[in-house]
Design a protein that fits this description.
Helices cover about 45% and strands about 10% of the residues. By secondary structure, it is mainly alpha-helical. It is globular, with a radius of gyration of 25 Å.
Length: about 550
Amino acid sequence: MAALRWLLRRYKWLVAISALLALFTLIHFKRQPTEVKLVRRYRSNEQHANMANWPTPLAQHWRANTEQLAVLDTIIHDAQCTTCHDDIDWSHRQQRVVSAARTAWHSYARDAFGHDDYFPLSHRGSNFTHLGIGYIVADVLDTLWLMGLRDEYKMGRDFLANQVSFDQRGTVSLFESTIRILGGLLSAYHLSGETDTKLLMLADDLGSRLAKSFNTTTGIPPETATLRSDGMSFAHVCSTSESSTLQLEFRYLAHLTNNPMYKESVDRIIDVMLNAPKYDSLVPTRIDAKTGLFVGTEISLGSRGDSYYEYMLKQWLQTKQSEVDLRVEYDAAVRGIKKYLVRTSPRQGLTYVGEMVDVTGEPKFSPKMDHLVCFLAGNLALGATNGTHVRKAHLSARDRDDLVLARELGETCAHMYFDTPSGLAPEIAYFALSNETTNQILSNGDILVPPLDRHSLLRPETVESFYLLWKLTGEKKWREYGWRVFEAIERCAHGEYTSLDDVTVVPPTKRDSVESFFVAETLKYLYLLFDDGDRVPLTHYVFNTEAHPLPIFSL
């Protein structure tokens, strides 16, 4: 003790300085806001070699015009009114959606409860494996919770907890099992309070089995997963969107279980894609799992391409905007979309997103737009605002341009519904490139629908974008559009809700099938669109591509 006092006397000046430094450090860092740690990942700017053969006229360079920007200014101005009210009883319309979801669930529960596939007209179900994997129940579970259908939720939850096991033989779609089952389990676990450990255990067990598919030379998985498997998976040429639409789910699973393997596995896929040469940041719909290079001949924001762009943005949002190269890649891709894929139709002036075909040979533009592409309107609005309402968002010139394009595409997707006799959109539409008319054109306008593309699966992408545009801009027309879509569904598919054969005839013939995304996505987005509250704040959640809300978290 005497020695300690001697040291303190001898070096009291040093002790004083140390104390002052400690006090300064404490005060300084206490004043600093908590900062998100930025994560850098390698991203290549290399152009694909085939671009050397692309003719200059392919580039159209879409940009918002003065009139469109003026309309946007008016919308932003109107959004400042926080006391403006709507005379429409949206809660009544919301309950109509709840009634539709309840009817759809009870029909399924009566005819095929627990089965993975449902045939409403023949009142039966079937499974994707011998024992079934809870495909439909897991997919719709969080919708039942959000809508307050607690008895139906408990019925579905107890079935999953007590009767579903993934320890079985069989192969499943890696992509669909991830977005529908894994995403559904994780969302239901979170929304119900993160106390139902059985749901998390199921998600962890399924995730560990699906994750074995990532054991390939590049990490890019095959399109199917074996529930009981070991060793090296075999993958050759795979869907771009399916490989790049696993990340939100596995990254959140890693966060909940403290198992970094899940995140590392799906991050590796994105790293390979970020490093691969592209076409002005646009990617073909196929990728070689052996080389990690894009090899497809088509560039599309529809089937096999869509959610690559969706998840590039949403991964950045999911981890509090910390992984900067994901946002850089998303923005570069949007520039590529505007440069090559956006066109305006001749008569109606509809802005749409087409495809580029034969990109490895003599590339040319195709005016084909899948209903799937309608997700882009909402995604652009989300990217422009980062989930913040326009009255609070700080919009750059690029953000304003993206938001104008979002509104224009939302309007076009509405026309894909409202221009058909049934009021429902076809699976695929083509747009007129000239003023010529054919017998496939709708309402003497610019939308053409060949006979094989006239069916409707009651898809969610358009109402998803209506919901995002409404929440982010406050523009009332998107709610009205959503109500018109719902009324068309009720007219054409009510009762035994089913897919439809031909939206150009009234009434459309019903198919003996219905997709689980009708309840999991379409009705969920309509329910949220008509909600006067903010049940799923876009500054706190990202929706996976199957409409399962997952919380934003820090790395």
